[in-house]
TrEMBL record, chain A:
GO terms for molecular function: NADH dehydrogenase (ubiquinone) activity; NADH dehydrogenase activity. Residues 151-446 form the NADH:quinone oxidoreductase/Mrp antiporter transmembrane domain. It is found in: Endomembrane system; Membrane. NCBIfam families: NDH_I_L (TIGR01974), PRK06590.1 (NF005141). GO terms for cellular component: endomembrane system; membrane. The chain crosses the membrane at residues 20-37, 49-69, 102-122, 134-151, 197-224, 270-288, 300-317, 337-359, 394-413, 433-459, 479-505, 525-546, 627-646. It comes from the Bacteria. It comes from Nocardioides humilatus. It is a multi-pass membrane protein. Pfam families: Proton_antipo_M (PF00361), Proton_antipo_N (PF00662). This is NADH-quinone oxidoreductase subunit L.
Automatic annotation (TrEMBL), chain B:
This is NADH-quinone oxidoreductase subunit N. One of its GO terms (biological process) is ATP synthesis coupled electron transport. Pfam families: Proton_antipo_M. The chain crosses the membrane at residues 14-34, 41-62, 90-108, 145-162, 168-186, 198-222, 242-267, 279-300, 312-331, 338-355, 375-395, 416-440, 452-473, 494-515. It comes from Nocardioides humilatus. NDH-1 shuttles electrons from NADH, via FMN and iron-sulfur (Fe-S) centers, to quinones in the respiratory chain. The immediate electron acceptor for the enzyme in this species is believed to be a menaquinone. Couples the redox reaction to proton translocation (for every two electrons transferred, four hydrogen ions are translocated across the cytoplasmic membrane), and thus conserves the redox energy in a proton gradient. It is an enzyme of class 7 (translocase). Residues 162-466 form the NADH:quinone oxidoreductase/Mrp antiporter transmembrane domain. The gene is nuoN. Its EC number is 7.1.1.-. Coiled coil: none annotated. NDH-1 is composed of 14 different subunits. Subunits NuoA, H, J, K, L, M, N constitute the membrane sector of the complex. It is found in: Cell membrane; Endomembrane system; Membrane. GO terms for molecular function: NADH dehydrogenase (quinone) (non-electrogenic) activity; NADH dehydrogenase (ubiquinone) activity; quinone binding. Keywords: Cell membrane, Membrane, NAD, Oxidoreductase, Quinone, Translocase, Transmembrane, Transmembrane helix, Transport.
């Protein structure tokens, strides 16, 4: 693999409609400022303003997109210099924006899906007393996310990176009166700091190595270094691994995945926008954007593939075990991001397909999350699928749109997910047979858990009652909520169009390079058929286990071993809890030195160690001057000894 | 009789110093001639006018400063070589004078205590006695705090400007002695305050002894007290090397004590907690800026030739300081103590900057020299620290300032603006991007990195992460925790003096984070020390 296959980032100066690039970020940012600073004066109309802003950004993004399409392939990369952020001596970090095919697609996804989710939220949050604040945070998130994908250097990207982290933190904990929401927000924040540490170390290292943080500068440096053979392989691998750590934190990849399921404590539109469609895919963006690093860091690339493969299985297994509809969807999100990471890890051949899957996933997963919100709306905010059942007649629009998302995610032929997932599996099989097989197996599991979710929610016998205590009266949501569902459902069905005539591959080629076509071990058609068969087996299993049996309203706990084994989902839950979630979260606790005080009032793991060290050190702080004076004397001795030691 | 030649003094360049010391003397005269009840207003006015005039003079001098040494530095060597007024000096002077003005504003606050200042009416009177009550009813105050503050500021101005070891020692004492006194003058929790003052004094005197002995050894080695002379001797390295090494170590003790580096940090929490909070606010920012300026001058000018032996020493100290400060801050239950340990951690980060690359040759294109990084960091930390302590003065309960962390629970719901500002200062100290602290940390870490001290930077990043833990915990406490019944603090109504100070610090922290450009330019424009 050589850097030559990776184009150098060399944008032209922004002109015409592209000089409005800054406005794409500025609109939602202004919205956030007005809503958050305006206080209760904006209560009445705040949510409309908050919705208009991303819509405005969407319009600009669309205009830019079509303008770019009208240009030659080589001219689609433009940069806009706003102002010198830090510019002293030789250090030059500009507020620079970069518009190229990659960011173009992200802009459309973020502002498009973002606008739909804003519209949906008008209905969903209609009765929340703090609706204005919610829209303010959402706008803040959109602005930060746009900053992330538009920045022309790693410092700007990091700014957006931290911004989305902050917005995510605020939104997960939005219902702060719920203890679990506050705890989840904090958990997400702290785990993300580990990723951010990797990210900032990576930026440091790139700065030290290349003397700049801009994409164009670094990609030029890599290309130049590669040509004269001056590129230090181990440095590149380190940068790659550190970037991967950053990506793992934001994209909930193993081992930093623990926060995503808890993050479902936030309002459902948040889960749809941040924890399914956009923010969690930032890791994939980072890896794709840093292709000039990864193409020269083979070991880091291998690490990406390993992490992605583990995660896609992991998330799928979690998805099988959860009774909470949002958590089941979150498990599936984790798994699908695993696929995208896998695509990105496979290098030039896979980048375009990773982004393709990212886009289709953005459509169908946002669709399903919003659908889940609509179901919760119907069921009085109950999230336990064991309390659902037989809803397909009662919420017809939600059901139909959800079904489109379902068919897309399991990869039903003709739907968007079929094309995107299929391509990644095909490339994976070409690169490494075992990774490819894992990806295929993951597709089968996806078929299983999504079918289970579908059945438990919309089919099977109703497990709720419309009379007596805890009565619910399921009803369809208002049009302001179902409208976005219909649009997203249409996109879920038709998203595959982007692959027609390899359009997306060619469109992204100026950014990610063009791969030589390698023949997969089997004909592409056979692979597709195999995938369909594996998915079919998963669906059939789900039909057998869920549809053919009675579903208890409460997950049984005191069942015999045989029953446990038969009810595969419970078995998965047990495995999941004992083998995965607990050690995983403990590992993370130890790493981050976080406290679990929020959860159980006690400190554990690394927090405990630090606290213990603190308590021990505290004893030195006796309050006696004589002790302090002794430590001064001791310190003086240490200084003398260090100096002497250095000079020996 | 030997000839006595009149020393030549550069009155224009020395103007800021002369104004501050002169104003302090005027303050003493006011104490002597005005009746007790009517001293406060004139004292405050005189101090503010003096400091503002000194600030104006500093800017003027900076504008007039000429380039020397081929353009690497600007300024002059004044007062027969004992005071060096160069770019870094002038930058620090400006910074210290601003902190001084903010300090005077905080000192003058009277609304919080119901018409009394935060200082004791009569320090000699025991709390709860008749004399104390009388002093309180008459509204008496120790207005001596203003001249004391001015003398301290004067010492701080001289400290980083000193051109030889003796001037440096004198400056050290001039800045320290008034601070010792100020620490002991709290109206509330008098015994804690007096204990703090005594501890600070005893330990300060002890460490000054080390400094003085170190100066003696260095004189023995170099035969000169001036930094330029020492530099010559170090580069020619003729005589007893052990004299130099021991001298460096002992001088370091004195300076590291002042900045509060481990293992000389023990006084910091006790003194920060015991001193009146207005004094703590000023002291935390001012002393650190002055002492780091002096530290940098001593090591960069006098001991530059011995770089390879003091860099490891400071690295060890930096690592110990960062870890100790961050870890101990976690177990604190008092806001002022928590901020004190965070100050210790920041000392460590600053030391990381001091060991960084200095020469232009060592730096990659676009990096800051360590001096620039340290100066910028001092600016960001100083404003955040003054602001945070100023906020502590207005969060109160029946017993005065509510410094126990438990009392801060749920403050975000009662006073979102105050809690939000405090949270912002904490985030800046934590180094979250878009706040001033991030840019500062970036500057010092990169400079240490390019000097090859990646292991110190690694520890620094780990400590930052640990530190984020307790900053965020406090923010969570303010916004997401419900208060314990009976243990709540409320925000008192403060006068414009305190509110204005907080607003200025907040604005500075925001601006330094979002558009740090102009200040970074100022820092780079300051140039190098005159050697």
């Amino acid at each position: 693999m050589s850097a030559l296959s990776i184009p150098v980032v060399a944008p032209t100066e922004a002109d015409g409609v592209f000089s409005l690039l800054w406005l794409i970020i500025a609109l939602p940012l202004a919205g956030a400022a007005i809503l958050l600073l305006g206080g209760k004066y904006t209560d009445k109309w705040g949510h409309y303003l908050g919705t208009l802003m991303p819509v405005g950004s969407f319009v600009i993004s669309l205009t830019c997109f079509f303008t770019a399409l009208g240009r030659d392939e080589g001219d689609r990369q433009v940069a806009q210099h706003l102002y010198d952020w830090i510019d002293v001596g030789g250090l030059h970090v500009g507020m620079d924006l970069l518009y190229d095919p990659l960011s173009a697609l992200f802009l459309l996804l973020i502002t498009g899906v973002g606008s739909l989710i804003h519209i949906y939220s008008i209905g969903y949050m209609a009765h929340d007393a703090r609706r204005r604040r919610f829209f303010g945070y959402l706008n803040l998130f959109v602005a930060a996310m746009l900053m992330l994908v538009l920045a022309e250097n790693y410092v700007g990207l990091f700014l957006g990176w931290e911004g989305v982290g902050l917005a995510s933190y605020l939104l997960i904990g939005f219902w702060q009166h719920k203890h679990s929401a506050a705890a989840a927000a904090k958990k997400a924040f702290v785990i993300n700091r580990v990723g951010d540490m990797g990210m900032s170390l990576a930026i440091f290292l790139m700065f030290v190595t290349f003397g700049t943080t801009s994409f164009s500068g670094i990609s030029f440096g890599v290309a130049a270094g590669d040509q004269v053979g001056a590129l230090d392989a181990s440095t590149m691998n380190w940068i790659g691994v550190l970037l991967l750590i950053g990506a793992c934190g934001k994209s909930a990849q193993v081992p930093l995945q623990a926060w995503l399921l808890d993050a479902m404590e936030g309002p459902t539109p948040v889960s749809a926008l941040i924890h399914a469609a956009t923010m969690v895919t930032a890791g994939v963006y980072l890896v794709t954007r840093s292709n000039f690093i990864f193409e020269n860091a083979p070991h880091a690339q291998t690490a990406v593939i390993v992490v992605a493969t583990v995660t896609l299985m992991w998330g799928a297994i979690l998805g099988c075990a959860k009774d909470d509809i949002k958590k089941a969807l979150a498990g599936s999100t984790m798994s699908q991001i695993g696929y995208m990471m896998l695509g990105a890890g496979l290098g030039v051949a896979g980048y375009a397909f990773a982004i393709f899957h990212l886009l289709t996933h953005g459509f169908f997963k946002a669709n399903m999350f919003l659908g889940a919100g609509s179901v919760m709306h119907a069921m009085d905010d109950d999230v336990d699928m064991r309390h659902y059942g037989g809803l397909q007649k009662l919420v017809p629009v939600t059901f139909l749109t959800f079904a489109m998302g379902y068919l897309a995610i399991i990869g039903f032929p003709g739907f968007s997910g079929f094309f995107s997932k299929d391509k990644i599996i095909e490339v994976a099989l070409t690169e490494n047979i075992w990774v490819g097989l894992c990806a295929m197996l993951g597709a089968g599991i996806t078929g299983f858990y999504m079918t289970r979710l579908m059945l438990l929610t919309f089919f099977t016998q109703p497990r709720w009652s419309s009379k007596g205590e805890g009565a619910v009266h399921p009803h369809e949501s208002p049009w302001v909520m179902t409208g976005p569902l219909v649009v997203l459902a249409a996109l879920s069905v038709l998203g595959g169009v982007m692959l027609a005539g390899d359009w997306i591959v060619d469109f992204l080629a100026p950014v990610v390079g063009h791969a030589e076509h390698e023949e997969p071990p089997l004909p592409a058609l056979v692979i597709s058929l195999l995938v369909v068969v594996v998915v079919g087996i998963g669906v059939a299993l789900a039909l057998f286990f869920v549809q053919k049996r009675d579903v208890p309203r409460v997950a049984p706990t005191d069942v015999s071993f045989v029953t446990k084994a038969a009810r595969a989902d419970l078995y998965g839950d047990a495995i999941n809890d004992a083998l995965v979630v607990r050690p995983g979260s403990q590992l993370v606790t130890g790493l981050v030195a976080t406290d679990r005080g929020v959860v159980d009032g006690a400190f554990s793991g690394g927090g405990l160690v630090l606290r213990g060290a603190g308590q021990a050190l505290r004893r030195l702080q006796s309050g006696y001057v004589r002790t302090y004076a002794l430590s001064v004397l001791g310190g003086a001795l240490v200084l003398v000894l260090t100096l002497v030691a250095v000079n020996l | 009789m030997p000839d006595f030649s009149k020393p030549s003094l550069e009155y224009f360049e020395l103007l800021p110093l002369l104004i501050v010391f002169g104003t302090a003397c005027v303050g003493v005269l006011l104490e002597a001639f005005l009746p007790r009840q009517s001293r406060r207003v004139p004292q405050v006015l005189v101090s503010l006018v003096g400091l503002a005039a000194a600030l104006g003079a500093t800017i003027w001098v900076a504008k007039e400063a000429k380039e020397v040494g081929g353009g690497a530095a600007r300024g002059i060597v004044g007062a027969e070589g004992s005071v060096i007024i160069d770019g870094p000096t002038l930058y620090l002077w400006g910074l210290l004078l601003i902190f001084g003005i903010l300090g005077v504003a905080l000192f003058a606050e009277r609304r919080l205590e119901g018409g009394l200042s935060a200082f004791a009416g009569q320090a000699a009177a025991l709390p709860g006695t008749e004399a104390e009550r009388q002093a309180a009813t008459q509204g008496l105050d120790h207005t001596e705090v203003y001249p004391l503050l001015l003398f301290a500021i004067g010492g701080m101005l001289l400290f980083p400007a000193s051109g030889d070891l003796l001037t440096m020692f004198v400056a050290l004492e001039v800045l320290s002695l008034p601070l010792y006194l100020l620490c002991g003058l709290a109206r509330r929790r008098r015994l804690l305050s007096q204990e703090a003052a005594l501890k600070y004094f005893l330990l300060g005197a002890f460490s000054s002894g080390f400094f003085l002995y170190g100066a003696a050894l260095i004189y023995g080695y170099a035969g000169s007290m001036s930094f330029a002379g020492i530099d010559q001797a170090v580069r020619n390295n003729t005589s007893e090397h052990w004299l130099l090494l021991t001298g460096i170590a002992l001088l370091s003790v004195g300076l590291l004590f002042k900045v509060g580096a481990a293992p000389f940090q023990a006084w910091t929490p006790d003194v920060y907690q015991g001193a009146p909070t207005a004094v703590t606010a000023f002291m935390s920012a001012g002393t650190k800026a002055a002492a780091f300026g002096a530290l940098a001058r001593l090591f960069y000018v006098a001991f530059d030739g011995e770089r390879w032996s003091w860099q490891p020493m400071l690295s060890v100290v930096a690592i110990a300081t960062m870890l100790l400060g961050a870890v101990l801050a976690i177990v604190q239950t008092d806001v002022k103590r928590m901020l004190a340990y965070s100050a210790v951690a920041h000392t460590g980060f600053l030391l990381t900057g001091v060991i960084g690359a200095q020469g232009a040759g060592q730096l990659a294109k676009g990096q800051y020299s360590s001096l620039e990084g340290v100066l910028f960091y001092l600016t960001t930390y100083g404003f955040a620290s003054v602001g945070a302590f100023a906020l502590v003065t207005i969060v109160r309960d029946a017993g005065g300032e509510a410094t126990s962390t438990a009392a801060w629970a749920g403050l975000g719901k009662r006073s979102p603006l105050v809690a939000g500002s405090f949270a912002f200062f904490l985030l800046s100290m934590a180094g979250i991007p878009l706040t001033a602290g991030f840019v500062g940390k970036w500057a010092v870490f990169t400079s240490a990195m390019s000097a090859g001290f990646w292991w110190v930077v690694l520890v620094a990043i780990v400590s930052s992460v640990i530190a984020i833990f307790f900053y965020v915990r406090h923010i969570k406490l303010m916004f997401f925790t419900d208060p314990e019944p009976g243990e709540t603090a409320a925000v008192s109504d403060a006068s414009l003096l305190t509110v204005g100070t907080i607003a200025i610090c907040l604005a500075a922290t925001v601006v330094l984070g979002v558009v740090p450009g102009p200040v970074l330019e100022l820092v780079t424009g300051a140039g190098d020390f005159i050697r």
